[in-house]
Specification:
Structural class: alpha/beta
Shape: elongated
Mean pLDDT: 90
Number of strands: 13
Distance between the termini: 36 Å
Strand order of the largest sheet: 5-6-7-3-8-9
Low-confidence stretches: none
Radius of gyration: 21 Å
Strand content: 25-35%
Order of helices and strands: EEEHEHEHHHEHEHEEHEEEEH
Number of helices: 9
Largest sheet: 6 strands, mixed
Oligomer: single chain
Length: about 280
């Protein structure tokens, strides 16, 4: 069973359409959801959380229909997004008290353990916390009711590198249970490279790429060569390229290169940049 499955999901706005996207997150895996601003990442997450209604398509979360089994689904989700930021009038400890009434499996001891780890004073008002501290509080809340699937929208945004690494360690601990899965939207692709098993890349409301990290490593590489060399490449060997005064830099399929040529590994940032701005038509 997949932890998350989306089929032909569509949402139309006046100036943007999430256009029939499909992808699946296997149980026990971490998927990074990437794309430039306006690509459709937040729209996708809002559709998953029921904050928007789709115009077409299907969503399955933990084998359930979130519209028909809303309460059962939400009790098994841990969510961090702008929509989950706690009211400014709450004290930190109030958050735990309120959430303990909503989630039967709420673990108060674990909650206070995360507050200690993150250096958050339980007596402080949420409005007095910095952006980074509010995000850390949201992460603590998401992890303390025995959720099976975490949906995290930019959870490390605004955090310094040391705290980001602490958060990733906590997510790794969460993934020690094979029932657990994570959908992680982030602009910080270096974080995704440390933890993700799968990547889904949205561009202009469409899925441009959705594959395992292993498949991506095997299928994408970076190559610099002389301009006349690309004429001898097999069809489909070049996904995207740009020319400069030194030659050609190309995003390639290493498996289709001529003998004697070896591509360097391509980073997630390079794949995004080249497929977005320099794709071969």
């Amino acid at each position: 069973m997949n932890a998350l499955e989306i089929k032909q999901l569509t949402k139309r706005f006046d100036k943007f359409t999430l256009d029939g996207i499909s992808f699946a997150l296997p149980m026990g895996a971490v998927m990074g959801l990437i794309g430039e601003n306006g690509a459709g990442k937040s729209t996708t997450i809002k559709l998953l959380l029921g904050l928007l209604r789709p115009d077409a398509g299907q969503i399955s979360i933990l084998g359930m229909d979130p519209r028909k089994e809303e309460l059962a689904v939400k009790r098994r989700l841990g969510v961090v997004s702008e929509a989950t930021i706690l009211p400014a009038s709450y004290r930190v400890r109030d958050a735990g008290r309120v959430l303990s009434t909503a989630y039967p499996a709420w673990n108060d001891e674990q909650f206070y353990g995360y507050l200690h780890t993150f250096g958050i004073d339980p007596s402080k008002n949420c409005k007095d916390l910095s952006k980074g501290m509010r995000m850390k509080l949201s992460i603590a809340c998401a992890l303390c009711h025995d959720a099976d699937l975490l949906i995290l929208d930019e959870p490390t945004s605004g955090l310094d590198p040391i705290v980001r690494d602490e958060v990733l360690d906590i997510l790794r601990d969460f993934m020690q249970d094979e029932r657990h899965s994570i959908l992680l939207s982030s602009h910080i692709t270096s974080d995704l490279e440390k933890i993700a098993d799968y990547i889904t890349f949205l561009h202009a409301g469409k899925v441009r790429l959705s594959a395992s990290i292993l498949d991506i490593d095997a299928s994408y590489g970076m190559l610099r060569c002389a301009p006349d060399m690309v004429q001898d490449f097999a069809p489909g060997a070049i996904y995207a390229m740009r020319r400069d005064q030194f030659g050609v830099e190309a995003l390639v399929d290493p498996r289709r290169l001529p003998a004697g040529l070896t591509a360097e590994p391509a980073s997630i940032d390079q794949i995004m940049l080249f497929l977005t701005r320099h794709a071969v038509q």
